[in-house]
Amino acid sequence: MKMSSDVQVSSRVGDDPGDDLVDPGRVALARERMPADADVADTADVFSLLGEPNRLAMLLALLDGELCVHDLAAVTGQSDSSTSHALKLLRAHRVVAPRRDGRRVFYRLDDPHVRMLLDLAVAHTAHTEAAHPEREGHS
């Protein structure tokens, strides 16, 4: 899977001091607050991991606590193999952490920030659907 960190981040628009800026103060503030390109790329990687529906379903299932690979596959409707493959990727990015119990491996969310992102995303979706019931069921 090609992650955003594999792609060179282009230079930011407006680097030329001769640009005719509408609000130079806000541009300066935005530039000051802008993380380094590498940090932007790493953040994009996190969103990329969360943006794939099967991985997102796994992470949402882990909000209630740890699950073994087989049970996580059953909850999400995926095969054990595809679940294991996705968990390997999530583990490599320190989004989930394993715990071995005999032959079984249990996974849990490894980062409270990911939990917050998931909670916020679910709350946003619920809020959006409540505010726009005509869009319910559409993505």
Task: Please describe what this structure looks like.
The chain is mostly helical and 139 residues long. Helix content is 53%, strand content 10%. The protein has a 3-stranded antiparallel β-sheet with strand order 1-3-2. Helix 3 (53-61) crosses helix 4 and helix 4 (69-76) packs across helix 5. Mean pLDDT is 86; it is low at 7-11.
Any descriptors?
6 helices, three-stranded antiparallel sheet, 139 residues, single chain, 3 strands, mainly alpha
Question: Quick summary of this structure?
Answer:
By secondary structure, the chain is mainly α. The protein is built from six helices and three strands, in the order αααβααββα.
List the SSEs and their pairings:
Layout lengths: L23 H10 L3 H14 L2 H9 L5 E2 H8 L3 H13 L3 E6 L2 E6 L2 H20 L8
Antiparallel strand pairs: 1-3, 2-3
Which band does the percent of strand residues land in?
5-15%
Summed over residues and divided by their number, the pLDDT gives a mean of 86
Number of strands: 3
Helix-strand pattern: HHHEHHEEH
Structure classification: mainly alpha
